Each structure stands twice: as structure tokens, then as C-alpha cells.
């Protein structure tokens, strides 16, 4: 039942003892019974936890204590000489009948006796008295004295090496550290070895006696601010075997200690971080690879915002401004908040009053006397999900019922008109994984009654919401809406960017109290500990401006064809529309079957056709290992010209360069080979026609040539992309684009990027000049082949369909069924308006394209 959230924020738990307790009532001669339990020794209090869960926990704050001493029990000789006497002016009862409720403060003098079952009182009393002396000091001096006691205790303890997973692990570094959770600090020791990092808390309250993290499982390591100083470090890793992402947030004694641990971690061979440069992450967001939600979380992380620190909790924008209508149309721009303005500037009349006050102020001036993110605001939203946090932060009390988070509409109205309320939202409003659980009073806590007699329960949602899950889903859909996507960069400029401070902040009406800004005060230069403590409390309670991430205007998001291509809701809506609509779509892009031929013994792997005025040859390869050349005249199959066996394994793909008069074949033998084009009607001799071999590390699964025929790209079974120069056949770069077999690749229409799709149902875009990934997204159905036809992108799928998308406006056109089974090959000749498809059904079909 005991947790550190029952203590003051940041209070430290040292140890506990098996005891028997009785409360001495001097007003009566009645004999009191001893109660079995445990006594928790903490830095600012003593807490007794009874074994009977119906009995309340009793907390005695040291600052309210009159006397602590060893006493003798005349009435019980068995317990004499080992009793601790504690006399206090008041005490606190918590969790009576194990129900989470506001604490009861008993304002009366009381005397408690604690009999220690095993420990010796005379050995523990000096430390308790030392903490009691600290409690008589001003808060800042008390904290300094407590930290001295903590460091003294820590320096006498080393990491218990019996907890090492492998006794042959080589120790790299050992240091003191605090594990940080919201409102909780738990001291311990960090041990870094060549294969693991360990955290061993000094007490027995942590979930693990020793936390063990394998270095090979670490995904990211981030330097963080903690309590306004650069002493924090956050480690993100994959917990096995669940493959679940976990976080460890620790603070160290100094920035030098933090930096030493950070460097030592990075220097270990087992650490391999998934790091993507900031500009690439921004590029991914611009191109639609990252959702708005994920990108905002990423920027929050860059700005030192973390879920483990309520003083620097991630901040999200209000995006919808309509919380009263019975229905909501996400395509209506009028329902959205103006993201180019801070919350305080949305309502004109309030802004004018704030500006009048601003002009009359002496320096340093500020528009807003309250912040958009602070611990109190975070818990204002989360009180139903984490009531224990609110009780911890507010000294055992919930807020007044009328000031609680009761209605979404009321909160929105308040942040528009109230002169001291400018709060934004938190990620939970857009987190569809948790289904809006923070909006529900699932613990059934009695929060009291509002002034109108209404009992506080679940949050009142807008009329357009069918429940918490639906409410959060609608907000998430709104956040990802095109209107928000096209304007979100303005809000990023205000919160994380160039409009955060300075002259641009003044122009944007975005000026907050000066202590909110990072670096406004160097706390380490303030010698007076009471003054420094006062500033720390003021800054932490008021809220902190995120670290500035961008100093130039943030780029606007662009709409990508692939972003819409992968949106299941768009595909579903098309299928569910009326037949009239489907008829209209079919007239935009139609294919008419011309010829069907079937000459491969196994599945067709690849087809290529020259894009010239008159089609004469079609080349195909199949999983039977055969490369076959066909002569087509008058759109009829006439004869097989020849068969080429030029690889040691199956030929998987083909490409044809008319300008260079070459054929490129890719094979499961881990090579791509360049061949001279044959002379029609002559016998093919592989040795004479072979030009060069391009070696790969695994099976070649697809190849493609850029429109200007200067670049060749090849993809492999293990997910690698190879880019080759067609003039020299030199390798330009390789990049690991997928985790499995690449199905198909095409150059974009300008030849600046490579679009790839794979068995992992991931679409990637790789920049040709920098080899960087500019787009990545997962889709529901696996695409097997991609090809451009003028402005149309044709996508062959597992169900024998061609999905047609118009690049102009990223519009889905139609879905055309072509084969019984997967379409493995697509080729086009625009000049002849011909599309060729090859499938697992061993058929090659020639289609005539009709543009209506």
C-alpha cells in the first residue's frame, strides 16, 4: 500500500523496520493494543503501515514533531529499552480501508510508541534525530542538509556485484544516480558493464531489486534537463521477450557525471542506436512519413519534454474549437483553431486587455502571467487516471469541485476568455491506444459536488462524441487532417521555434514571464540557497518554456501521393460509395484486354517492353529460370525468338534501355547482369552479349532504370537498395531500406527519389543524391509492383488487382482486376497506350489503355 507518492514531491524514502505501534492516549487509563506493521523512515516524515489493510496509514511529518526519543515501557517489560517515542502536534491518516481519498489531517497532539522487533532503537535514533534537526530549518536549508545525509549514506554503499548476470562482465563505470518518475525521486547506484547497465536502488520500494538493461536492446539515449539543470539522462530500450518499449529516466550529481555516463554508454560496442538526424525527421514529416502526432512527440523530446517529469511534460495544441455542435465535419475549416496564434491571442478582446496591461508594466514585461504547461495543468487533465499524483502535489487534497476538469467545452471556453488561463493540451487527448481512459472516473473516487449539486464523475464530452474512445479518435483524426497539417508549422514556430522568444515572440503576442525561459537565470551563480530555492519553486510551479529547437521558420508540410495511397479510410470510402460514382471513376482510367499468352511453366517474375512508336518485342522472365523474347506484330503473339539462360539461378527481374541498347537481368544468384541487345532473328550467344556483372550480398529481386537512363537501382531479398551509375557501372551507394524482401522499385517522375515497397508492407522514399530516407510508412495490403503511366501510379497487389492513383492531387482513380492471384510484373508503353501484366497464374496479358 505504501508508495513514494504518499510523501511530499521529491521526498526520499530511506528504509523500513518491522515494528509494533500503539497510540498513547493520556486522557484515559485504558490500555491500548499494539498494532503490527512497518515503520517507513523518510527524509521528511515517518510513516506507519499497518498489516491490516482496513487501518489507515499514519504519516507523522517531522516538521510537526515535538519530540522523538527512546523510552522505556513500564507496562511491558518484554518491550522495554527498544521503544521509539514520537510526540507530534498533528498527524495524517491515509488510505483508510485501502480507499484512495483526500487525507485526514488530525490537528491534535498525539504520542506514538514504536517497538522495533529486530532493529535496535539506540542505533537508529541518531539518524532520525538528524532528520528532525533538518526539519527545523527553512525549506532550502532543510533540502541541503537532507542531500548531505543522502550523499553520505550513498558514498558508503557500493553496487552489489552478486546481481551481475555474468560474472565475467567487465565493469566500465559505477556512479550514484536517482531514478526519476513523476513527483518521485529514488536514489541508487548505476553500474555500467560492457554488456549491460544496472540500476540498484538503495531502498526496497522499486519494482526491481536491480534493474538490468542489455546494451544491445537500447534504442536511444537522450540528455535531459532535470530541475532546471543539465543532469538528466533518459534511456529508451526494448524489453524482451515482450518487445515492449521501456524508459529509464535518471538524474546524476552534476553535468560532468551525466556526460561521462552518456559518453561511456555510446563507447560500448554493444550499443547501436536508431538515430535519425533532425533534418531527416522533419523531411519525413513534410513528406507524410511521420504523422503529426508522432512528429509533435519527437519535437517535444528534442525540447526536453518527457512523460517522466511533470514540470516538463509534452505539450500538444488545441486543434478543434467546436465543442457544442451535435455533429462535426472535419472537412469544415471553421471548426479548427487558428494555429498561427498562441492560446492567449485567440480572443481579440482579451488580447487587447492583456496588451494594455503589458504597456503599463516595467521591465521585464510579459503578456501572460500564466503558462500553457505546468505540473498543475497536467494533473488537472489526468486527475481521474492518476489521482495519487494530485494528492501528492496538493498535500493530500483534490482541487475544489468547481475548478476541476469537468467539461471539455467549459475548459475551452475558459482558455479563450479567462485572463489567467492559457493552457494547451497533453498527448493523452490524441492517444488512441489508451482510448481516453483519463476522461473516466474508473476508480469511483469521490471528488465532491459542484455548486449546482452535480456530483463529479466522468468528464462531460461534446455532443458530437459518442464516448471517450470516439472523442479521442475524432481529435486524432482532426490532428492528422489536411487543414491542420498545412498549418501546424505555425504552432511549432510559437512553441518550439523562432517565435518562441525575442522580437518575433513580441510580434506574435507570445511573451511569457521571463523566468519561464531556459537560461533566464543561472541558478548555480546564486549563492543564497533560500533565494535559489524560491526561484526554483517559482519556475517549476509556473511552468517552463520548452528548449528552443528551431531558430528559422519551420517548413510547411507537403501532401504526398503515398500518404493518401496508404490511407485505408480513403480506400474504404471509395469502395463504399455509390455505383454512379464508381462508373465515373472507371471512365477516367480503363484497360481493355488485347492478348493473353501463357508460356512460362511457373510464375511470371518480370516483363519489360520498349517504349517506342511501334512495339515489336516483349521480354519476360519467370521463376522457371527462362528469359523469353516475343515478337508482337499487330498486337498478336507470333513466335518465341529465343531463350537465354545466363544466370546460375532463377531470373527474377528485367529492365530494358532503348537508348543504350542493353538489357539488365537480376537473379537469385545474387547478381545483376548487363547484356547487349540482340539482333532480331539471330542466335543469342551469352558470352558475346555479356557486358558486366553487378554483385550483391543476397538475391536480386527487382531492378529499375531512371527516365534519363543514367541510373540503375536494384533491390535485394534482405531489404537493401543498390544505386549504380549507368555510364561506369560504379556503385553510388547502398542503403538498408527494408527488413525483408523488396518487391518493387521505381524512380519518381523527376528522377530525384526512389520509391520502394516490400514484404514488410512498408513504402519508402530514398533521396537519390543523399541516400537518405525522406518518407516511410506502413500500409495494410502488401504492394507487389509499381510502375508509372504518365501521371498515373499503377500498383499491383496480392489479389490480382491494379490500383490506379493520379499523381496530380494524389487522387485514387480505380481498382482493376487483372489476374487470378498476385500480380508480380507490370510494364507499360505510353506511346502505344499499352499495359502488360504478369502474374502468379503464369499468364502475361497485354492491355489497351483508353483515356476518357
From TrEMBL:
Pfam family, one: GRAM
UniProt-listed InterPro entries: BEACH_dom, BEACH_dom_sf, BEACH_Domain, FAN-like_PH, GRAM, PH-BEACH_dom, PH-like_dom_sf, WD40/YVTN_repeat-like_dom_sf
Family annotation (CDD domains): Beach, WD40
Keywords on record: Repeat, WD repeat
Domain BEACH: 270-557
Entry keyword tRNA processing: no
Record-annotated BEACH-type PH domain positions: 166-266
Gene3D superfamilies: BEACH domain (1.10.1540.10), Pleckstrin-homology domain (PH domain)/Phosphotyrosine-binding domain (PTB) (2.30.29.30), YVTN repeat-like/Quinoprotein amine dehydrogenase (2.130.10.10)
WD repeat start-end pairs: 644-676, 693-734, 735-776, 816-852
PANTHER family referenced in this protein's UniProt entry, alphabetically: BEIGE/BEACH-RELATED, PROTEIN FAN
Stated name of the protein: Protein FAN
Lineage: Eukaryota, Metazoa, Ecdysozoa, Arthropoda, Hexapoda
